[in-house]
Amino acid sequence: MTIWKQSLILLAGVGLIACSQSTPPPPAIVLTDELRIQLAAADAVDGKTDHVVAKCVLCNLKMDGKPQFAVPAGDYTVRLCSTGCRASFLADPAKAMKISAPSMPH
Ligand SMILES: [Zn+2]
User: Fold this and answer.
1) How many whole angstroms from 60 Cα to the centroid of ligand 1?
2) How many domains does the chain have?
3) Mean pLDDT by 10-residue block, N- to C-terminus, for the chain (106 residues)?
């Protein structure tokens, strides 16, 4: 059962956040309809529609997002892979999600 493994990883992540409270909470992100659709698509990439985007949207959903770089976006939690990706997402969520959305079919 991989669900157990996931739960353990989640718990470890929560522990990390609790231990590092030095960073101020990020500003609230207002979800537009377009952003919501893109978040839903990104959420489904990991096979679970749990409102947690587990892959870094700045890295075309190819890098694993880390709980310590998570950003709340409406009723979603978006995990980024680094401080740089997190900052870019916070600066312009719509633009960040557009980068990850495939614009051209292969
Ligand atoms: Zn990234």
Assistant:
1) 8
2) 1
3) 62 57 70 93 93 95 96 95 96 86 54
Say if CB 53 and CB 77 are below 8 A apart: yes
Asked, for residue 105, whether it belongs to a domain, the answer is yes
Looking at the domain assignment, is residue 11 inside a domain? no
Instruction: Give me ligand 1 centre to Cα 19, in Å.
Output: 23
Q: Is residue 65 part of a domain?
A: yes
Residue 7 Cα to ligand 1 midpoint, Å, equals 23
- Give distance in angstroms: CA of 55 to centre of ligand 1: 8
Question: What is the 85 CA–ligand 1 centroid distance (Å)?
Answer: 5
Pairing between strand 70-73 and 52-53? unpaired
- Assess if residue 89 is contained within a domain: yes
Ligand 1 geometric centre to CA of 89 (Å): 9
